Amino acid sequence: NIEKTLEGKTVLITAGPTYEAIDPVRFIGNHSSGKMGFSLAEEASKRGAKVILISGPSSQKINDKNVTLHKVTSAKEMLSKVFEFYDKIDIGIASAAVADYAPKEVAKEKIKKNDDNLTIELIKNPDILKTMGEKKTHQFLVGFALETQNEEENAKGKLEKKNLDMIVLNSLRDEGAGFKNDTNKIRIFTKTEKKEFDLKSKDDVAKDILDFVESQLLK
Ligand code: C5P
After folding, report:
1. What is the ipTM of this complex?
2. Cα dihedral 156/19/134/216 (nearest 10)
3. Active site residue 30
4. Segment Phosphopantothenate--cysteine ligase: which positions (predicted)?
5. Residue 11's pLDDT is what?
6. 159 lies in a domain?
7. Fewest C-beta in 10 Å: which of 115, 129, 130, 141?
8. 127, part of any domain
9. Cβ of 94 less than 6 Å from ligand 1
């Protein structure tokens, strides 16, 4: 029997990769599975929250009456879906692996392999979480940082730059952490606190993250 510690709260979670179209059949994407975000959604729901889960293409399934799943494809679609709900949420958790760049133009027809070289011009995608941070009024915002070097410094930099309340760091230097694994090893930072966790299943990591969020909300 789980205590309904998030009863009355609305939690928005972004999850999965984004796909950025090149032409009608191709895209730029990444290997994010969406597992971390779906685990967070399930755990938040168990704790009594109303959950808005906005996910890019992912094979994860969720069947929970407190979770509304909105499927999107690109970063721009994810951004506009987030802002349909942003004013009404209490907690925002950005676990999506958003593509940093998207093709400037989407070819109308399938690109033919005629030339030996092909150049695709990319332009920067909107930073969804940074935009959430800029428009923050009352929302408690949680970001993720997936780093390979200067981990702590980079994570703290993102906490500041994106106007977050908390950031979850996973270092790719830790075995079993990150993207495609079923496990994760995290460190959490706020402006004043730091906490380090052991390697765990993503379901257990979701519990640690939400416990930490709840401890901050009580402050
Ligand atoms: O700057 P970086 O991509 O490392 O930041 C990671 C955090 O920002 C994650 O929480 C990710 O979900 C979020 N993000 C986003 N939109 C982007 C890029 C990152 O929401 N375009």
Report:
1. 0.98
2. -50
3. yes
4. 11-219
5. 98
6. yes
7. 115
8. yes
9. yes
How many whole angstroms separate alpha carbon 167 and alpha carbon 173?
A: 18
pLDDT, tens digit, 9 for 90 and up, residues 99-141: 999 999 999 999 999 899 999 999 999 999 999 999 999 999 9
Does any ligand 1 atom lie closer than 6 A to the CB of residue 159?
no
Cα–Cα–Cα angle for 200, 141, 36, rounded to 5 degrees: 30
Domain for residue 5, yes or no?
no
Does the reported pTM lie above 0.90? yes
Q: For ligand 1, say whether the CB of 129 is within 6 Å of any of its atoms.
A: yes
User: Do residues 95 and 128 lie in contact, with contact meaning Cβ atoms separated by under 8 Å?
Assistant: no
Q: Which of 1, 30, 114, 125 is catalytic?
A: 30
Q: Which residue among 28, 30, 101, 144 is best mutated to probe the pocket of ligand 1, counting the most ligand atoms within 8 A of its Cβ?
A: 144
Count the domains in the chain: 1
Q: Answer yes or no: is the C-beta of 98 below 6 A from any ligand 1 atom.
A: yes
* H helices, E strands: number in the chain: 5, 14
Contacts of 7 (CB under 8 A, 6+ apart): 47, 48, 49
**CATH code, domain with 84:** 3.40.50.10300
Residue 216: count other Cβ atoms within 10 Å of its Cβ. 16
| Whole-angstrom distance, CA of residue 143 vs CA of residue 13 | 10
Give dist(CA 209, CA 219) in Å, integer.
Answer: 16
